[in-house]
Amino acid sequence: MKVTNAYQIIITEKFTQSRAFYKKLGFTPVFDGDWYCQLVWSTAPSVQLGLMKPGHETQPPIFQAATIGEGTVLTLEVEEARDAAEELRNAGFEFAVDLRDEPWGQRHFALLDPNGVRIDIASPTAELSPEFAQQFKETGEGAMV
């Protein structure tokens, strides 16, 4: 199997609010229907997200239930989380987790979307502790460190 892309679809009763939230965050719609919206990040088009109303007749039952948000994390990796935090705070976003550095080398903060989906905005720019450094595997391009 050759994977060419991956994206999350959030099935939501709060379709309109979610679309507005993700557009304010920085996503741009490339398909914007009344039941489905496909969003991309303008400077990184492979970063995508779908929003869909629940119970739509075009979808099989497995794809009709709305998310409850619990247990879902959408991570957006940025060049520097400190800069992203300042930008989003100035844009009026409320943080569910304030900016912090983790010993595994990640600097991050978190938002909640209108559905309760956790959005972790992270950069690999914090100091990496020796205890965590030894746990990273050499995986090539795209590794966390």
Would you give an account of this structure?
This protein has 145 residues and is an alpha/beta fold. The protein has two domains: 1-67, Signal recognition particle alu RNA binding heterodimer, srp9/1, CATH 3.30.720.120; 68-137, Signal recognition particle alu RNA binding heterodimer, srp9/1 (2-Layer Sandwich), CATH 3.30.720.110. Helix content is 17%, strand content 32%. A four-stranded mixed sheet has the order 1-4-3-2, with helices on one face. The protein has a four-stranded mixed sheet with strand order 5-8-7-6, with helices on one face. A hairpin with a 5-residue loop joins β6 (97-101) and β7.
CATH secondary-structure class of the largest domain: Alpha Beta
What's the pLDDT, averaged over the residues? Answer: 91
**How big a fraction of the residues is strand?**
25-35%
Task: Give, in spatial order, the strands making up the sheet with the most strands.
Answer: 1-4-3-2
Order of helices and strands: EHEEEEHEEEH
- Count structural domains: 2
What is the C-alpha radius of gyration, as a whole number of Å? Answer: 17 Å
What structural class do helix, strand and pairing data support? alpha/beta
Question: Helical segment tally?
Answer: 3
Could you say what the CATH architecture of the largest domain is? 2-Layer Sandwich
Which fold name fills CATH's third level, the topology of the largest domain?
Signal recognition particle alu RNA binding heterodimer, srp9/1
The dominant shape is globular
User: How would you sum up the major sheet?
Assistant: 4 strands, mixed
- Report the end-to-end length measured between terminal Cα atoms: 26 Å
Total DSSP E strands: 8
Low-confidence stretches: none
Share in helix: 10-25%
